[in-house]
Amino acid sequence: AAVTAAVASSARAAAAAAVKAEEEKTKHRHDEFHHSHDRYPPHDKYGLQAKIALLEARLREQEVTHKLERELMEKEHREHLRALERKIEALERKFLESKPPPSEPSPRKTEQPQPANPYPPPHFPPGFYPTFGYPAPHFMLAPPMPPPPMASPGTPGADIFGSQ
């Protein structure tokens, strides 16, 4: 963490020095421009060119800073992943070393034989469900019966009892 802080602070210092140098150059150019145009009104009356140059320099500094910070974060992330991988490898080695050799009997509980099932498998007579043991419903035993013929209303002698 101390190394990363030192790298970040040195990166910021380098970026700040670059910006300061750019500001000095811009100021010098600005002064030269005004001295050479003393007789005429300056084209950059309000120092807009200098402000633009300053803002561009700050933007470049910000880009450099962001780039350095991103690289630093990626480096820290890679280091963290490597540390996790080393930790995993160490734990795997420890686990393999602590495992007893296969020739030794394992300290696990030995399996006891299961007692025989006291209930014999059920026998299902025909007409019973093989899974539930209930009598089969009527639709499984015989085909459905057709409905009885109905006499049309008004036919003499045709009633439900068949009497005439």
TrEMBL record:
Name this polypeptide is given: Uncharacterized protein
Pro residues bias: start-end ranges: 115-127
Region listing for Disordered, in residue ranges: 21-44, 92-127, 139-164
